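We modelled the chain as a single entity of 963 amino acids. Its sequence is:
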Amino acid sequence: MSTALVVVGVLLGAALTLLPSAAQAVAGTSRVTPSGVYLVSLTERPAATYAGGRPGLPATAPPPGRRFDRTTDAASAYAAHLHDGQDRVLSRIGDPEVLYRYTTVLDGFAARLTPDQVKLLAGLPSVAAVERSSVQHLDAVPLPRIRSAGGPASTRVGGLQRTDGIWAAEGGPDRAGRGTVVGVVDSGIWPENPSFAGLPVDLAPLRGFHGSCAPAEQWSSNDCNDKVVTARWFVRGFGAGSVAASEYLSARDAAGHGSHAASVAAGAHAVPVRVGGQRFGLLSGMAPAARIAVYKACWTAPDPEHDGCTTADTVAAVDAAVADGVDVLSYAVSGGSDPRDTVSRAFLNAASAGVFVATAAGNDGDAAGSVQHVAPWVTTVGASTQRLFGGAVRLGDGTVLDGAMVSSRAVTATRLVRGRDVAAVGSSARQAGLCEIGALDAEHVDGRIVVCERGVTARVDKSTAVARAGGAGMVLVNTRPGSVDADVHEVPTVHLPVSAAPALTAYLRKAGDRASASLLPRGETTVAVPTVARFSSRGPAREAGILKPDLTGPGVSVLGAVSPRGDDQRRWDLTSGTSASAPQVAGLAADVLGMHPAWGPARVKSALMTTAQRLAVGDGPFAGGAGHVDPASAPDPGLVLDAGPAAWRRYLDRSVSARELNLPAVAVDRLVGRATVVRRVTNVGGRAETYRPVVTGLSEVGAVARPARLTVQPGQTRTVRLSFTVGSSATLDVWTRGALTLLGSRHEVRLPVVVRPHAVAAPRAVTGTGDTGTTVVRGRRGTPAPVRVRSSGLVPAAPIGLTLVPGSFDVKAPTPDADTEATPVTVPSGTELARFEIDSHNVGDDVDLYVYRGDTLVARSTSPSADAVVTLDRPDAGDYTVYVNSRNAGNDATTTGQLYSWVVPESGGEPLDLTPSAAGAQDFRYKASWKGLDPTKRYLGVLTYADSPDNTLVEIQEPEPTE
């Protein structure tokens, strides 16, 4: 039996936040815990953030505006203290092989561990986290090997524009970024490239910087200079035996990605560039006077599919970079969506020590939620297009198709053939259509322009195939939506969008053997307003109270230094990806810090975001965040929003929500009724200024900023409150976008705002006891419409007694035995919820719970505790098996207890009657009542809300025994 209820309330003034019950289990796809390399984080503060407090161990954290200094007596003593604690932990698990010790941005280590050692570590009170080292990848759009994406700040080449203004403010490009060090965690550097020549002026030595340049394979101490001041490499996680034969076990770059990132961020000023006989003008890094510190942690493998960077190595690189004293980190490497993973926590401590961290948003296209590096203490950079290399194809009938073209060499009217029509012997039409190397018949290609289809093989490899077959040029055409890229090709090439394909196909079909075309270079085309690249990853972040990416920078067809070893002997190349964008923002941060050395990372990030240019596309902040970074405006933002280490740590510990952080963006997820967000702004200018807050956009959501006018004195901080109200016609669970702009007499400070109205806020679970009783459920409505509530009824548990001897569990091949109980469970279609819960008799037990559907592990609860719970909302129908495994027994002998299982249908359980109670404003409240239940059983029911994916569990416990 089920009961439905409609609850109506009156509008209320205050927002209500209701959090899920702590008993809710994590459910979803789970990974096996094999032997391997793990990153182990301990609970002590690392040296970069240790503020003192231990007897005999003075503080080691740097004061604001200063670098962390690992050479002090205090830092040495504290590092030794951390090593002692690490040794004690390692001895508890049998002293495994240790790859790295982390002491600067983490207290921890990377080691080779067995599953049992991982389990033991997870139960130690001094261990904060254990995470398996994973392979990440360099965030470039796929090219041969792992070619990067970058962009210079040149007047001639696609990259950040309007650099002259910031350089002039710094005293010219020879002083842009002066006194700063940009650390590049990447694939190394090719030191002979002119972008890395010594600085042109005599600058003061770097105080407090302690990098090193050790000799290694194809690298001598002479390869460092006053531009490249550090060169270190980290391969223990990846494995020296796993690298390609073309690699260097040193900081020398075999792939080209790291060289590209370094030249984009801080390459020398006005370097003449020539590629394939074509002049590209003068190239500059974003901060030409900044120094470069190289931390190679990304490697090529014999199989390009295995190229990448292990987190064990990248965390070691970040640890070393902050220990050396870098001011900025460029991290153009992929990452996860968890702001609390080990890499993110390393970045937190780096940022807390004053290091600005620029990360790549990822290249997973326009899929919602694909953005990476979502922690609020890093600046996550998407890719945008600001300047294109234009070209066109003029067909024989006069039709002109516009596309992208780097080559300045035109191809006059020439016979046009489709690649798929000129396949070489032994090659298929498909291979020839894709212009795979060796697939084209030279006799029919010689002297002709070839139409090649995009896909499978790298774009530049297709032009190589045309060149080897004697072709005069190439028309590269997209066969589905995708980016249009200007690459340096072997023959003149125009890359056409998919929208041009029908006209091209129709012409080829009509003209047949008489088809001809001309390729027409049109030089550089400046786009009026930047647009987000199609490949650039989008938000929202998994924790949607944080708006990611933060902003964008040029990431399409930008020029930078590369490794001749990995780029067909070229020293420069044009490539695309968010790994182009992140180094440019890192370099711009160095420029800003050169002018404002006392600013922390949060102020720099705020200055970059609040001065960004608006984007031309309708993708909104989930594509481009605050917009396209503007070098000319960033050094003088007027106001900044400062969110420091203390607030970041409270967020990390979940004691504050993302909405409460003082970020230069506002994201309100699940807005139920009303909410107010507070932002604090600080005047970093030299004069008082009066601002008028204005809210724009946000259809169907009301927003008011207060005060209506505020005057901020130099150095003063003022508060702005932004209040939201969901309109009666608001579309629920759909994001709406807008902006909060503070309009001053000399500055405009713009914060992107996104809001998602939601129908209901209700508790995840409520409880009751006894065979007859009532419990009260309190919630909040998101709109004036009534809340419709439905009850599934109550279902009793099916308990099974457990007596287990501790032992291991094979996740790949689970088998019931003395240490593992297996219980089959059938879940019919229409099931609202399935829940499995272990109740151990001894609080010292360690019991794990695994749920499989067929042979697939769908959920698990494996915390080192006596109890475990898995909850599956609306599970797929099928046959499941629930395994209970004892890892340890509190009595050192056996684990005893019970497994409770509930499979709750949409309706049909024991009656759970719903009656309205007093409700006021937008709050609602109702009573859930039951009677006549079996007092010896535990019951579970589910309350669902119309127009909302949320539900509330009603748990009826057995009554406590009485004396």
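As a brief sanity check on the tokenised model: The chain has a mean pLDDT of 88. The longest strand covers residues 379-395.
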